[in-house]
Amino acid sequence: MTASSDDSEPLGQIRLYCAAHANCCDRVRWSLDYKRVSYALVDLDQPHDAAHFASISPFGRIPVIEIEGIALTESMAIVELLEELHPSPPLNASDPTTRARVREVYETVNSSIHPVQNGGVVRHFRPELSGPEVRQVRADWIASNLLKVESWLWLNTGFAIGSSFSLPDIFVAAIFQKGLSLGINPPNFQALPSIGHS
Amino acid sequence: MTASSDDSEPLGQIRLYCAAHANCCDRVRWSLDYKRVSYALVDLDQPHDAAHFASISPFGRIPVIEIEGIALTESMAIVELLEELHPSPPLNASDPTTRARVREVYETVNSSIHPVQNGGVVRHFRPELSGPEVRQVRADWIASNLLKVESWLWLNTGFAIGSSFSLPDIFVAAIFQKGLSLGINPPNFQALPSIGHS
User: Which residues are CB-neighbours of B94 under 8 A, at least 6 positions away?
Assistant: First the structure.
């Protein structure tokens, strides 16, 4: 499936391997779409070349992007590469300290909030839990941690960090959307519901 | 305490807040030392200005660095900022795709291996475990995941990625050192023991 088109794309065909309901995948898709970079989307929930996917993602991780002759995992590595190859429109700030704040926030989502709410991680630690119990554990973790992070964000502008749209707007919205799907309560948050429903 | 000195340091006093045995802190200290950037080290296991630390790290997270007039958490955001402010000697590659590989590997350590072995996370999920049981759970997670990552690294050179020393050498060595302290068995690994003991 082709997700978006851009005749100016100079890099040859980009291929992105994703699954539905994976907020790590949403981060990359939304970044590609914001930058109007064309790509072919391989939905792993649909029939696909499983042998090829296994060859480029030996541990079965998603998202994976094929770009510039390599296959790359880790959403933050992917979006940083996209920022280097397609700097306009930017998804990071132009000055070093604001850029550091951008990375601080998206990394908090990626390494402090996301891994512990991952369904596989919850089941690794608590294999006795039922499906609804796993969902509740995940929702509680996302909600309590997003409440902390929210105090850093949307302080003076309509953007998560600084004065323009950037990667934290995407990373925070993606995990908030995941939280909503797991049942977190939007009125508990001040600024997040407006982005989560936009 | 002053950890290292460099008379050419142009940025004023950098202050790094760390605790012993925190491999996230080791990543930043080793990066600063490799780049010969001077900094004052605040050891949070020793008497310190707790009110000031609470003001710059409202969630109590470490490491925190005071640099360029801001206080910044998240080791990856810190080391990326150091790379921008102090590019020589480099801790990342000069070409985009190798730089993406560097980020892919250090992010795998930071967001896939580290959070799940974190003592607080293990106790969050399994509060009934004894201290030695927590250590075993942590060691098992580090060992099984490092075995996967090791297959990506030290493929053709004496460096984790590419042809020079870079952030993955530091991030992987720090988590391997943590694993050793928790009792993982070095002979189970091919390349790691040589860096872990160097």
Answer: none
Reported as a pLDDT band with limits 50, 70 and 90, residue B198 is very low
Helices B75-85 and B23-34: crossing angle in degrees, nearest 10, is: 10
Are the beta carbons of A70 and B97 separated by less than 8 Å? yes
Pairing of strands B70-73, B64-67: antiparallel
Upstream peptide bond of A63 is cis (omega within 30 degrees of 0) = yes
B74, A103 contact by CB (below 8 A): yes
- Chain A: nearest CA to B186, how far in angstroms? 22
The CATH class that applies to domain B2-85 reads alpha beta
Report B:179-198 residues touching A (Cβ under 8 A).
none
ipTM of this predicted structure: 0.91
- Cα separation, B156 vs B163, whole angstroms: 8
Q: For A96-196, which CATH class?
A: mainly alpha
Residues of B in contact with A78 (CB under 8 A): 100
B2 min Cα distance to partner chain A (Å): 24
Whole-angstrom distance, CA of residue B170 vs CA of residue A12: 34
Three-state DSSP class for residue B151: coil
% residues pLDDT > 70 (chain B): 91
H or E element that contains A101? helix A96-107
- CB contacts, 8 Å: B31 with chain A: none
d(CA B57, nearest CA chain A) in Å:
11
Question: In the structure encoding, which two tokens stand for residue B113, read together?
Answer: 């291996």
Separation of alpha carbons A160 and A149, rounded Å = 10
Minimal C-alpha gap between B104 and chain A (Å):
5
Domain boundaries, chain B: 2-85, 96-196
Assign A53 a pLDDT band (cuts: 50, 70, 90).
very high
Q: Do B99 and A114 touch (CB under 8 A)?
A: no
Instruction: Report the 10 Å Cβ neighbour count for A9.
Output: 15
Q: What's the pTM value of the predicted model, to 2 decimals?
A: 0.91
For residue B151, list chain A residues with Cβ-Cβ distance below 8 A.
58
Q: Is B115–A110 a contact, with Cβ atoms under 8 angstroms apart?
A: no
A178/A10: higher pLDDT: A178
| Per-residue pLDDT tens digits for A56-103 | 887 888 999 999 999 999 999 999 999 999 999 999 999 999 999 999
